[in-house]
Design a protein that fits this description.
It is a single chain. This protein is an alpha/beta fold. It has one domain: Rossmann fold (3-Layer(aba) Sandwich). 40% of the residues lie in helices and 19% in strands. The protein is built from five helices and five strands, in the order E-H-E-H-E-H-E-H-E-H. A five-stranded parallel sheet has the order 2-1-3-4-5, with helices on both faces. The structure holds manganese (II) ion. The site of manganese (II) ion has 5 residues, from loops. Manganese (II) ion binds next to loops.
């Protein structure tokens, strides 16, 4: 696959272990990765780098991932319509519905399952495009 056909993922994640794991899995499967460790950096990169999709942690050190999602959806550029997949360890009932209502396109529960996460991501991207 040549470089131009690779999809770029913006991973907004503050946990280094999760970041290393997801980066490795995405690279192995032919994706390009850019990374932000805070919500505000992620929001800026979403606008400046035009990623093909975003993996968004919900528990971030500065602003909540839900706030990042709201701010992305409020953009009036194409960045506002980017595919966003939330990653969260919250196991509360209704959490998925709340995130989907805020405009995320998919949802991955932590801990990330290395055996299934890439197919989960591909499925969301395919359904969205
Ligand atoms: Mn986190």
């Amino acid at each position: 696959m040549d470089d131009e056909k690779k999809l770029t993922a913006l991973v907004i994640e503050d946990n280094e272990d999760n970041m290393v794991l997801i980066t490795k899995l995405l690279h192995m499967n032919g994706f390009k990765i850019i990374w932000a460790d805070t919500g505000m950096k992620g929001l800026r990169m979403a606008q400046e780098e035009n990623p093909d999709f975003i993996l968004l942690d919900i528990q971030l050190p500065d602003i909540e991932g839900t706030e990042v999602l709201k701010k992305i959806r409020a953009l009036d550029t194409s960045a506002g319509r980017v595919c966003v997949i939330a990653m969260t360890s919250y196991a509360m009932a209704g959490d998925r519905e709340r995130l989907m209502a805020l405009g995320c396109n998919g949802y991955i529960e932590k801990p990330i399952n290395p055996m299934t996460v890439i197919s989960q991501i591909r499925k969301v991207i395919e359904e969205y495009s």
